[in-house]
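Lecture notes, continued. The same structure-token format from the folding unit now serves as the input rather than the output. Read the line below as a description of shape only.
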């Protein structure tokens, strides 16, 4: 006999929130990675890298579960394509963190003392952007329950603007650090400069992905 549950399927919004928690676990490793990297503590770097890889894999498992379940959901308050785009942006945060950890762990690189403060600022701005984004992303289940409208939607829209402001500060820190690195090109090797540049770019991508995920929430709100 046909069941009404089969018509509506399984809501993806609770799993999306669970995926966010897994991604946040990866972000929570960034302060440890920052401290180990700037201190040149290669054993600690290896330990944090391994932890990030495990956490990113857990996020991937939840992502795959959502992708497998979503086609079975027939009635959703927003477009499936928007949900997929949101999931991919949220997952890109964890992916980029793993990329940064890979780059830092692949070579015993010493950060010049003249660059440490700028690196610390960039890490902090990226973490700030992610944490502000999680305030938005964490509301997706409640937004779904209200049909992505009402007071909840208005409040979240204001939070999204704060994510954008934080990402702008991360962009500025990234640019300042990139300029600073080349001021030391006569003091550090070309290989080190190349690697540091890649790390800087990947750190920036973490913040970009956090903003993109928040913007996907905005897209869902606007379409309502």
């Amino acid at each position: 006999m046909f069941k009404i549950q089969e018509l509506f399927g399984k809501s993806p919004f609770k799993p999306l929130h669970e995926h966010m928690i897994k991604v946040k676990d990866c972000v929570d490793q960034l302060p440890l990675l920052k401290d180990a990297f700037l201190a040149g503590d290669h054993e600690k770097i290896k330990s944090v890298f391994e932890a990030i890889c495990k956490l990113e894999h857990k996020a991937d498992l939840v992502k795959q579960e959502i992708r497998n379940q979503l086609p079975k959901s027939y009635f959703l308050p927003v477009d499936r394509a928007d949900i997929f785009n949101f999931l991919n942006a949220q997952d890109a945060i964890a992916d980029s963190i793993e990329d940064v950890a890979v780059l830092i762990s692949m070579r015993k690189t010493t950060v010049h003392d003249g660059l440490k403060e700028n690196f610390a600022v960039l890490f902090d701005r990226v973490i700030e952007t992610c944490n502000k984004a999680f305030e938005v992303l964490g509301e997706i289940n409640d937004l779904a329950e209200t049909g992505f409208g009402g007071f909840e939607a208005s409040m979240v829209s204001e939070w999204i603007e704060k994510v954008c402001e934080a990402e702008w500060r991360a962009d500025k820190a990234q640019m300042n650090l990139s300029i600073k690195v080349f001021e030391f090109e006569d003091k550090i090797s070309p290989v080190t400069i190349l690697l540091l540049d890649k790390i800087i770019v990947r750190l920036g991508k973490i913040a970009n992905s956090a903003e993109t995920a928040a913007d996907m929430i905005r897209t869902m709100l606007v379409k309502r």
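Point for the exam: DSSP finds nine helices and no strands in the chain.
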